[in-house]
TrEMBL record:
<dbReference type="InterPro" id="IPR015955">
    <property type="entry name" value="Lactate_DH/Glyco_Ohase_4_C"/>
</dbReference>
<feature type="binding site">
    <location>
        <begin position="119"/>
        <end position="121"/>
    </location>
    <ligand>
        <name>NAD(+)</name>
    </ligand>
</feature>
<dbReference type="Pfam" id="PF02866">
    <property type="entry name" value="Ldh_1_C"/>
</dbReference>
<comment type="similarity">
    <text>Belongs to the LDH/MDH superfamily.</text>
</comment>
<feature type="binding site">
    <location>
        <position position="96"/>
    </location>
    <ligand>
        <name>NAD(+)</name>
    </ligand>
</feature>
<dbReference type="Pfam" id="PF00056">
    <property type="entry name" value="Ldh_1_N"/>
</dbReference>
<keyword id="KW-0560">Oxidoreductase</keyword>
<dbReference type="InterPro" id="IPR036291">
    <property type="entry name" value="NAD(P)-bd_dom_sf"/>
</dbReference>
<dbReference type="GO" id="GO:0004459">
    <property type="term" value="F:L-lactate dehydrogenase (NAD+) activity"/>
</dbReference>
<protein>
    <recommendedName>
        <fullName>L-lactate dehydrogenase</fullName>
    </recommendedName>
</protein>
<feature type="domain" description="Lactate/malate dehydrogenase C-terminal">
    <location>
        <begin position="146"/>
        <end position="306"/>
    </location>
</feature>
<feature type="domain" description="Lactate/malate dehydrogenase N-terminal">
    <location>
        <begin position="5"/>
        <end position="143"/>
    </location>
</feature>
<dbReference type="InterPro" id="IPR022383">
    <property type="entry name" value="Lactate/malate_DH_C"/>
</dbReference>
<feature type="binding site">
    <location>
        <position position="35"/>
    </location>
    <ligand>
        <name>NAD(+)</name>
    </ligand>
</feature>
<dbReference type="InterPro" id="IPR001557">
    <property type="entry name" value="L-lactate/malate_DH"/>
</dbReference>
<feature type="binding site">
    <location>
        <begin position="10"/>
        <end position="15"/>
    </location>
    <ligand>
        <name>NAD(+)</name>
    </ligand>
</feature>
<dbReference type="GO" id="GO:0006089">
    <property type="term" value="P:lactate metabolic process"/>
</dbReference>
Length: 308
């Protein structure tokens, strides 16, 4: 952790929640906050500094420029517009594409070993474009992807069957959103395949659980405008794995050369970002669903590139 620095670009609800979690965990020596809204940024710096003081965190918080952010060990992009009523998915995507392009351009050139973590939505599309724009190696450009969905469905399953969530290995993979895929075929409980470990009393409707997991973020956003705490904790966990070179496995969005875009599959995370990919045995149907959604994503990326 010695001398480690994390920057968060965009300090609204999600950025502030991520910063709060990072401070509580003392994950970095210094946390830099960046936002075009200088008043908001400075207010968050003061408020979050109080958190650092009160919990005796080793993380110190300060305001910074985009250029300074680009020289940090990890740069987290949470900036983006909200999906407003009446706005099409395409309009929403293009608005956030413009925002992320502006941010990446302002931070370039990056420190050569910097890890760029995209949280803004649509996360896989923006991660793919950030990789193109940043000129960083593919292993150093990541998206939060389906990490939160994977943690969520493990918790939902744990509540239903009375098993601790940490004893369940179950991943949500692919392009985050409507086409994401729950990898039930590879799920285990305590290392035992799920089909062998569940009793008749533990019968669950897997499709219903997957759909509930998929749409829970939408219901939270309808109720309170954003999902800051869940994604904030995920960002903190990813940053911790990188800064501390943990070598732990996480389902995050990263570049898939065979399909030419970024989406979520399990990887090992360390100081240099993705240190190794994990081959997960999926069913034919799961693999086909992931490929179909990635193909559609690549078509969207090509459309964006051709429009510029």
């Amino acid at each position: 952790m010695l001398g480690s620095r994390i920057a968060i670009v965009g300090v609204g609800q999600v950025g502030a929640a991520a910063a709060y979690a990072i401070i509580l965990g003392s994950i970095a020596t210094e946390l830099l906050l960046v936002d075009d809204n200088v008043s908001l940024r400075d207010g968050q710096v003061c408020d979050l500094s109080d958190v650092a003081y009160s919990c005796n965190s080793r993380t110190r918080v300060r305001a910074a420029s985009h250029h300074e952010a680009g020289q940090c060990d990890i740069i987290v992009i949470t900036a983006g517009s909200r999906h407003t009523i009446g706005q099409t998915n395409l309009e929403y995507a293009y608005r956030n594409i413009s925002i992320v392009k502006t941010i990446v351009d302002a931070m370039t050139p990056f420190k050569s070993d910097a890890v760029l973590l995209v949280v803004s939505n649509p996360v896989d599309l923006l991660t793919s474009l950030a990789l193109q724009l940043s000129k960083l190696p593919p292993s150093q450009v990541l998206g939060s992807g389906t990490y939160l969905d994977s943690m969520r469905i493990r918790g939902m399953l744990a509540d239903k069957i009375g098993v601790a969530a940490k004893s369940i290995d179950l991943f949500v993979l692919g392009v985050q959103g409507e086409s994401q895929v729950t990898a039930w075929s590879a799920a285990t409980i305590g290392g035992v395949p799920i089909n062998e470990s569940l009793s008749k009393e533990d019968v669950i409707n897997r499709s219903d659980l997957s759909n509930e997991c998929k749409h829970r973020s939408q219901s939270i956003v309808r109720a309170k405008g954003a999902t800051p705490f869940g994604i904030g904790s995920v960002v903190s966990s990813i940053c911790c794995a990188i800064i501390q070179d943990k070598g732990t496995v996480h389902p995050i969005s990263h570049f898939q050369p065979t399909l030419g875009c970024c989406f979520s599959l399990p990887v090992v995370l360390g100081k240099k970002g993705v240190t190794r990919k994990v081959q997960m045995p999926l069913s034919f149907e799961e693999d086909a669903q992931i490929t179909d959604s990635a193909t559609a994503l690549k078509a969207m990326i090509d459309q964006v590139n051709n429009s510029n």
